Amino acid sequence: MIELAVIKKNIETIQKNIEAAAARSGRNSSDVTLMAVTKTKPAAVVSNLLEAGIRCFGENYPDETAGKIDAFRADPAARLAMIGHLQSRKAKIVADLFDEFHSLDRLEIAEKLETLCTERNRNMPVMIECNVGNEDSKSGWHFTDESVPDNFLEDFEKISQMPHLDVKGLMILPPYAEEAEINRKYFIRTRKIAEYLNHYCGAHITELSMGTSSDYTAAVEEGATIIRIGTALVGPRDYSGKKLEVSS
Ligand SMILES: *Cc1c(COP(=O)(O)O)cnc(C)c1O
Question: 4-234 has which CATH code?
Fold first, then answer.
């Protein structure tokens, strides 16, 4: 398992890279939150991340998260976001255990969560997942070019009006790229979608969750406020011998 000292060193490196990228684009690095992505990692890694000062976490598989929820709960300031595709039958776990939902990828799951949050008398900050790479293998609303499609605008309007869901931003997971530069066009597109929604649709989007281990520097240069880092922070994931929840 990855040691605390290694995690601290990784955070230092990532923080330096964030600062350099922010400086290159005239941004303040304190406007960028480092989210630790801890899927497949044991509770002890979560504890080490807390020890190293991380307070923002992303998890993908609700059942797995439930099994290590005490590690997150150890610090009341820790915020836990669901960032993976959510099956309807697992939505209860998200409404019960997660602080935020960052992978809102279809109207149906928004309706489901709105009902669950109403029953629980709680609000849920959400991020809308935009499929800016127009990939069939990924979820989220499809964007084929620079335009903002009508079906997205209609659903966005409906979700914005749900009393228990607070739309804070947009989230993207572009194609895997060896180099950060390759995904810059997707980061720019996402920022433009947010600007469009704020300008023409009365939206109040303040967060852009974009950038992972391989491309977060370009994401920060283009306006990311949350970067989601797994590998560069806590090492590669080991899926061997693990029965993953099938997504879809
Ligand atoms: C796994 C995952 C990440 C982290 O990816 P790394 O390349 O390990 O940094 C970020 N976002 C989402 C949605 C993920 O599923």
Answer: 3.20.20.10
Domain map of the chain by residue range?
4-234
Q: Quick check: pTM over 0.85?
A: yes
216 phi, psi to nearest 5 deg: -70, -25
Compute, in degrees rounded to 10, the torsion defined by CA atoms 13, 85, 226, 219. Answer: 70
Amino acid present at 199 = H
Mutate to test the pocket of ligand 1, among 212, 220, 229 (most ligand atoms within 8 A of CB): 212
Q: pLDDT grade, residue 225 (50/70/90)?
A: very high
pLDDT in tens, 148-159: 999 999 999 999
> What three-state secondary structure class fits 167?
strand
With a 6 A CB cut-off, is 84 part of the ligand 1 pocket?
yes
Residue pair 92/113 in contact (Cβ under 8 Å)? The answer is: no
pLDDT digits 0-9 by tens, 107-118: 999 999 999 999
CB neighbours of 162 closer than 8 A, spacing ≥ 6? 110, 111, 114
Residue 126: which of 171, 161, 65 has the closest Cα? 171
Encoding tokens for residue 155? Answer: 């659903």
Q: What tokens appear for 184 in the block? A: 């810059």
Q: What are phi and psi for residue 34, nearest 5 degrees? A: -90, 110
H/E element, 59: strand 56-59
